[in-house]
Design goal:
4 strands; 205 residues; alpha/beta; 49% helix; Rossmann fold; four-stranded parallel beta sheet
């Protein structure tokens, strides 16, 4: 039996949109979604999901690395606290989900109406991808988009504009190209390679 059904566990709705696009690419049905604000729930429950995942219904959990002081493998080991279940796909976006989004440099350039050379050729190396993406949006020639993504000058505490998530979710659904992004983001490519490996293993059985 191949990899056909998964429970999706993510920390926010933007990560849900990216994950959904990835799983759709592999013709994997999402049978249930678990979406929480932040990664504290994911960290607490990772070992439980690792034990619960099985061949008929695996679990795909996607989180951000957030810190340059640890590596994805270290994070996975610290969360799982034991042997990693083959059917538990705990994947880590380096450094944040915005790294994967910006990795489709062509689409982001067109979306923000900025030169493509403003976007690094390895987006995993951006220390604060969310802040970097907002800084790109500040340079956009599209006023309405700039206002949607960039926080108001009057709101000193906000890191993003009021429509940041809805506009990026729509961008991911309609314009983000997975193959182009994987050629720029090594951590995204590792995730695609892992799913490809499991899908191919299923067809060989």
């Amino acid at each position: 039996m191949g990899l056909n059904n998964l429970i999706l566990v993510v920390e926010d709705r933007l990560t849900d949109a990216v994950s959904s696009k990835i799983l759709q690419h592999f013709d994997i049905e999402i049978v249930r979604r678990v979406i929480y604000e932040g990664n504290s729930y994911l960290q607490r429950k990772a070992s439980n999901y690792n034990r619960a995942a099985h061949q008929e219904c695996g679990v795909f959990m996607l989180t951000d690395l957030d810190s340059p002081n640890i590596c994805p493998l270290t994070l996975i080991r610290s969360w799982v606290k034991g042997d990693l279940n083959r059917w538990f796909f705990l994947r880590v976006a380096v450094m944040e989900i915005e790294s994967w989004i910006m990795a489709d440099r062509q689409a982001v350039s067109e979306f923000l109406a900025i030169p493509i050379n403003r976007i690094p050729r390895n987006t995993d190396e951006i220390t604060d991808p969310k802040e970097f993406l907002v800084s790109l949006a500040r340079r956009s020639r599209q006023t309405r988009l700039r206002e949607a993504l960039v926080p108001s000058r009057n709101d000193k505490s906000a890191k993003t504009g009021n429509e940041y998530n809805p506009r990026l979710i729509q961008f991911v659904r309609d314009h983000w190209n997975l193959e182009r992004a994987a050629s720029v983001s090594p951590s995204l490519k590792r995730t695609l390679d892992r799913l490809t490996e499991e899908k191919n293993a299923g067809t060989d059985q």
